[in-house]
Amino acid sequence: MSEVLKVDNLTKKRGDKIVVDNLSFSVNKGDIFGFLGPNGAGKSTTMKMILKLIKKDSGKIYIDGFDIDTNFKDAIKNVSAIIENPAIYLDLTAYDNLKIVKNFSDSYSVSYDIEDVLEIVGLKGREYEKVKSYSLGMKQRLSIAMALIKNPKIILLDEPTNGLDPKGIIEMRELIKELSQKHNKTIIISSHILHEIEMMCNRVVIINKGKQILESDIASITNKNDLFFIRTSDIDKAIKILNDKKYAKLHKIQNKGITVQSSESSIALLSKEFIKNDISIYEISSNNKSLEDIFIEITGGK
Ligand SMILES: Nc1ncnc2c1ncn2[C@@H]1O[C@H](COP(=O)(O)OP(=O)(O)OP(=O)(O)O)[C@@H](O)[C@H]1O
User: Fold this and answer.
1) Where's the ABC transporter domain (predicted)?
2) What local confidence, expressed as pLDDT, does residue 222 receive?
3) Domain tally, the chain
4) Do 88 and 51 lie in a common domain?
C-alpha cells in the first residue's frame, strides 16, 4: 500500500493552548480514512494545516511524497478539499459553477470534463438549474463535483454529512464509497459521527484535545473481541457444556444468559451442542464493541 499522506509530529498552538499536539498518522492510497474526534478536538485545524490554509508550529506534512514546506505546488495538486462552507455561486447554474472551477484547474494535466463529474455525483439533468433551487444534498454533491474537476488523488471532506437529511446522508455515503472504489480516490473524512465513520471508512484516527488516541483499521477495532451473547433456558447446564469445550470461553454470566468469547464458526458448533443437550436457545447476538463503545471508553464518555 503506498502512502499518499503522512502527518508527522504536527503541532499547533492557539495563544498558549496546544490545539494539535504532536499528531502523527498516515493515509494509504485507496483508504477511506476517518478523522474522528469530539467538537474542538482539532480536526479542522489539522485539515487546514494539511492544505497550508493556516501555519503549523512544528511537524511535517507530506502529500504523495511531497513536503508541503519545500514543494507545496507539487503537493497540493494532488488534493482537493471541502472545508466549512464551500464557495458556490447560488445565482449561477451548477454547470457554470463547474466551468469556473474548470478554468482554474486547466493547468493540471488530467482534469475531468464537466460532463464526467456531473455524471459521477448524480447531477446530470439538473446542471442548468440555478444552485439556489438545489437541496442541501445536491449542493453538497455539487461541491464534490467541483472538488473532483482537477482529478485529485486525495479528497478531504470536513463533516460531509452535516445538516443532511437521512436520504442525503445515504446518498453522500454511497457517493464517497463510489469515489474510492470506482474512481480510485483516497478520501479523508473528518467527523464526530461515529456511526458514519464505522459504515464508510476502512481506517480511522481518533483525536481528543489535539492528541492522537488511536490509529487503527476499523475491522480490527470492531472485531477485536469476538463476543456473543446467548440467552438460554438453562444457564447452569450451558456453562457446564461450555467449560468442556476448548473452542469457546465463558466471558461473563448475565441476567438471562451468558457472554461467550469465540469465533463465528465455533459459536455455530456450540449452539448445536446446546440443542443436542436439550438447552433451548432464545437469542444469539454479536456483542462486539462498536466504534462508539471504543470512542466513549477512550475519551472518557464525553
Ligand atoms: N481561529 C481560531 N482562533 C483561536 N482558537 C481556535 C481557532 N480555530 C479553532 N480554535 C480552537 O482550536 C481547537 C480546535 O478546533 P477545531 O475547529 O480544529 O476542532 P474540530 O475538531 O474541527 O471541532 P469541530 O467539530 O467543532 O469543528 C478548539 O479549542 C477551538 O476553539
Assistant:
1) 5-234
2) 66
3) 2
4) yes
Ligand 1 pocket mutation, candidates 11, 13, 14, 213, criterion most atoms within 8 A of CB: 14
User: By C-alpha distance, which of 151, 202, 146 is closest to 30?
Assistant: 202
Three-state SS letters, 162-226: CCCCHHHHHHHHHHHHHHHHCCCCEEEEEECCHHHHHHHCCEEEEEECCEEEEEEEHHHHHCCCC
Which residue minimizes the CA distance to atom 14 of ligand 1? 42
Residue 272 and residue 123 share a domain:
no
- Ligand 1 atom at minimal distance to the Cα of residue 207: 21
Question: Ligand 1 center to residue 48 CA distance, Å?
Answer: 11
In the chain, which residues have pLDDT < 70? 1, 106-110, 222-225, 288-289, 298, 300-302
From the CA of 43, how far away is ligand 1's center (Å)? Answer: 8
User: For residue 176, what are the domain limits?
Assistant: 3-220
- In whole angstroms, give the CA distance from residue 295 to residue 302: 9
CATH number at residue 256: 3.30.70
DSSP-based three-state secondary structure for 152: coil
Residue 299: inside a domain: no
Pocket of ligand 1 (CB under 6 A): 14, 19, 37, 39-45, 192
Atom of ligand 1 nearest to the CA of 158: 22
